[in-house]
């Protein structure tokens, strides 16, 4: 088991109960989509897993380690194993594509080496090979600020993979893209994580995309888990139920 979420609840300081007693296990190599109406807790769930936020109750086990009880240095080590892809790409816009991909290795470097941008030949070779996988080699020395959204997200994928994560968390990776580019990004993502055997959890608004690309779908509504099954088990009726009181 790679990840085990046990009875997790999250109450924000303002009183919002964003997650209510959520439990599920994730096996190595699974591709899981998390769907649900806006405000149902999808981002909160992802941010809890890599400890960007603290949960209020329950436990999260990553490779059998309870991440709630880890010390700061141990959390850094766990974070290294968990890659993130964001809706807003989170690239350093003024830097080049290849520099952004190399940033995926920052968690493995001393602060000085990171600041000075010192990377081994091996790392540089690898960064180029990941750029090749997302068909971005010809943009390697272009500034990220000059790229389209779809191109930026391809860099985001290469950077996340450069980190050599065991688990990849994608928070609405295609929400800012047009439908055709969105599918293109999902194609790259699915192909790469399948080839590299990386476990993937993706928050999505698009049910059709979730069904097309995932092995398994988890649905949240008002912080509760209301569906967790194989993608093909998600019927039209169930989709209606999941989105029944969309704001
Ligand atoms: N930092 C915060 N402080 C207080 N409440 C928050 C915070 N972040 C999120 N919430 C609330 O928690 C609930 C769940 O939010 P979350 O962003 O996890 O949902 P979501 O399903 O990802 O939504 P969306 O699809 O719109 O991104 C919402 O009611 C939201 O307003």
From TrEMBL:
SMART domains, per database record: AAA (SM00382)
Keywords of the record: ATP-binding, Cell membrane, Membrane, Nucleotide-binding, Translocase, Transport
Stored PROSITE patterns: ABC_TRANSPORTER_1, ABC_TRANSPORTER_2
CDD domains per record: ABC_PhnC_transporter
Gene3D superfamilies: P-loop containing nucleotide triphosphate hydrolases (3.40.50.300)
InterPro entries: AAA+_ATPase, ABC_transporter-like_ATP-bd, ABC_transporter-like_CS, ABC_transpr_PhnC, MetN_ABC_transporter-like, P-loop_NTPase
GO-annotated molecular function: ABC-type phosphonate transporter activity; ATP binding; ATP hydrolysis activity
Cellular component annotations (GO), alphabetically ordered: membrane
Record domain ABC transporter: where: 3-247
Keyword Nucleotide-binding: yes
Origin: domain of life: Bacteria
PANTHER family: AMINO ACID IMPORT ATP-BINDING PROTEIN (PTHR43166), PHOSPHONATES IMPORT ATP-BINDING PROTEIN PHNC (PTHR43166:SF6)
Protein name: Phosphonate ABC transporter ATP-binding protein
Organism this protein belongs to: Leptotrichia mesophila
